Amino acid sequence: MKPARSIKTHIIIAFVALIASLGIIKTAMNHFIVRYYVLDRAKKQLQSDLRMAQFVFDQELFRIRSVVSLAKAGDDLGEFRGREGLDYLVLVREGDSTKSRIVKKAEQTRRESLGTRIIGEEELKSLGQSLCERSEMEIIDTPQSRPSKEKVLKRAMALEYARPFFDWNGNYIGILAGGEILNRNFTLVDRIHDTVFEDRRADQKTTDIVTIFIDDVRVATNVLDDSGKRAVGTRAPSRAYEKVIRQGAMCLDRAFVVTDRYLTAYEPIKNIDGEIIGMLYVGTMEKPFRKMEWNIFLSLSAGLLVVIIIALIIAFLLVETIAGPILKVLGGIEDLSHGSLDCRVEEKTAVKELDALASSFNSMATAIQEREKSLITANEKLEKTSLKLEITDEKLQNANEKLETATSKLEDAKSRLEALNSSYLGLMSFLSRELKGIISSMMMNTSSVRDGIIGVIDSRQRIALDAVAGELDYLNATVNNFLSLSRLEKDEAVLSKRAVLLNEEIFHGALEVIAKAAAEKNIKIINNLGKNIKVLADPDLLLVMANNLAGNALNYCPPGGRIILSGRAEGSFATIELYNDSRSLTGEEKEKLFRKFSRLSADETGGVRGAGLGLFIAREIIEKHGGRIWAEAREKGNAFIFRMEREISGDETAEHNQVKESETVE
Questions:
Q1: CA separation for the pair 611, 596 (Å, rounded)
Q2: Does residue 15 carry a pLDDT above 70?
Q3: φ, ψ dihedrals at 509, nearest 5°
Q4: Rounded to 5 degrees, what are φ and ψ at 212?
Q5: What per-residue confidence (pLDDT) applies to 38?
Q6: What percent of the chain has a predicted confidence (pLDDT) above 70?
Q7: Average pLDDT, integer, range 589-618
Q8: Which residues contact 64 (CB under 8 A, 6 or more apart)?
Q9: 579 and 634 in contact (C-beta within 8 Å)?
Q10: Distances (CA, A) of 202 to 209, 290, 291
C-alpha cells in the first residue's frame, strides 16, 4: 500500500498536471495553426505568381506576332530577323515539304496562326547550325526524376507566329513564319522573374526561380547548379511529370531543386492542338517560410512559457497560503501529543478560517497546559497533607471543568476544520468553473479549425484535431463531474422539485448527446421507455444523473453493441433500467461501482478513462430524491436500475383510492 501524500503534495501535483496538459494542448494548437497559415499563404502566392508568369510568357508570343507582322514584300528577311531579334524568319511556299502545324493551319485558313511548338533535330539543322548547337543539351538525371533512356536533348521549344504573305501586287506567295527558340533563352526567364518576383535572396541565392521545360527537362531557367551555372538539362521530379505532363493538371508541391528545397508550382505548356509539350514552372525557396514559421512559433511558445511559469508561481503561493498553516497546526498537535505543552502556532495568515483554526488550537493548548499545571499542584498538595483533601478535591473538580472546557474547544476546532474543508471545496468549485470557461473556449476554437471555418485543413490535421477535441470533451466531462461533486458535498444542491417526464425531458436529451459517438462505434441505441412516466424531482439534477448513466453505458459498450433504455410504472413508483452490452460484472466489481473515486482496474475497464465520479454522483442524486440505484449483471452485459417515487395524475389517484377502499371493505 502506497503511503498517503500530504495535502500540499496533492494540490501541487493537481496544478502541475493541469497546467502541463493545457500547455501541451495550446503548444500543439499554436504549431498547427502557424504551419497552416504560413504554408497556405505561400501556396496561394505561388498560384498567383504562376498566373503572372503565364501572362508574361503569352506576352512574348504576342511580341513575336507584332514583329513578324511588320515584314513586307521586298524586305531582306535575314536582315529583318537580325534587326528584330528573332531566332528564325522563313517564307514557306506551297511546295515546301517541311511545314509546322502552325504554318499548315495558316495555309489552310489563309489567316494568321500562333502558338508554342516543338522543333525536331532535322528542322533545327535547316534553320542553322548555331540554333542546333544552342538547343542541344545533355540530360542530367536528378534524385527524384523518372527513369529515362534519353541522354541528349536534340529538340527545341519555340514560340512561333505564321501569316499569309503577299507581293506588292497582292498576289499570295506563301506563309511567313517567325519565332523564338526557348532553349537557353535566359532573357525570357529573367524577364518573367523580374516581372513576377522581387529580388529576394537567402544565403546569397535568389529565393525565387522560373523554369521552362520540354517534357521534364529544363531548357531555360535561372536555377544555378553547384558551379554557379544555369542548371539546363536537369530534370523535374517524377511527381510533377505525372501530374502535369500525364494528367494535364496544375501541380503544387515541395521539391528539392538542384541544391535547395523549394515550394513549387507547375503548369502545362500546350501546342495549338492542345497537346502537352512541356511545363512552365515557378518556385520559391522554402527556407525563408520555414524561418518565418519557426520565429512565429518561438514567439507564441515564449509567451505560453511565461504564462505557465506565472501559473506555477501562483500555484506554489496558493499551496503555501492554504497548506502551510494547516501543516503547522498538525505539527503543533503532534508536539502536544508528545508532551510539549508550551507549543503554539502563528495566528496571522492570509486566510480568515485558518486564523480561527490557529487561535482555537492555541486556546486548546493553553487550556491543556493549565489543566496539567493544576493537576501537578493538586498532586503535590495531596502528598503533603491529607488534611487538605477537601480543598484538593475542589481543585480537581476545577481541573475537570477546565478539561471539559478544553474538550469543548477541541470540538470547536473540529468544527472549524470542517469549515476549512468547506472552504477548500469552495475553492475547488471556483477553479472548476474557471476551467470550464477556458475549456469551452478551447473546444469552440478547436471545432472551428477542425470543421474548416477558419480555413481548409488536410486529413492528417483533421485526425490530430479530432484527437484534441476528444481530449477536451473528456476534460470538460471531468470538470462537470467535479462541479456536481462540489455542489453535493457542500449540500448546495437544493432540490427544486416539479413534475418531470422521464423520457421526454430527461433521457431523450441524454441519449441525443451520445448518439453521434454511438454511431461512430456502430452502437445501436434502443429507447423502450414509455411516455408520460412522471416523477416529482429536480429536472437539472436528474439530467446530470441521466448524462452520467448514458456516458457510462457508451464508454463500456463494445463496437456493434446495444444500449437499451426501458422502464415501467409500479404503483406509486417508477423503475427505470439502462442496459448496455459488455462483460458481465462480478459481485466484487459491483461493490466498487458507486464509491467516490473508485474505479475498476485497467484490465477490468478495457482502458476506459475516468475519475470514478459519474456513478457516485448518480447515486447521490437518486438518494437525495428518496430513491435507490443498483447494478445487475446480465448474460451479455450489465443493467443500471433506479427506483423513485412516481408523480400520479388525478385519474390515477382516484383509481388508486378506489382500490384501497375496496380492499378496506373486503
A1: 9
A2: no
A3: -65, -40
A4: -115, 130
A5: 60
A6: 73
A7: 67
A8: 86, 114, 159, 160, 161, 178, 179, 180
A9: yes
A10: 13, 12, 11
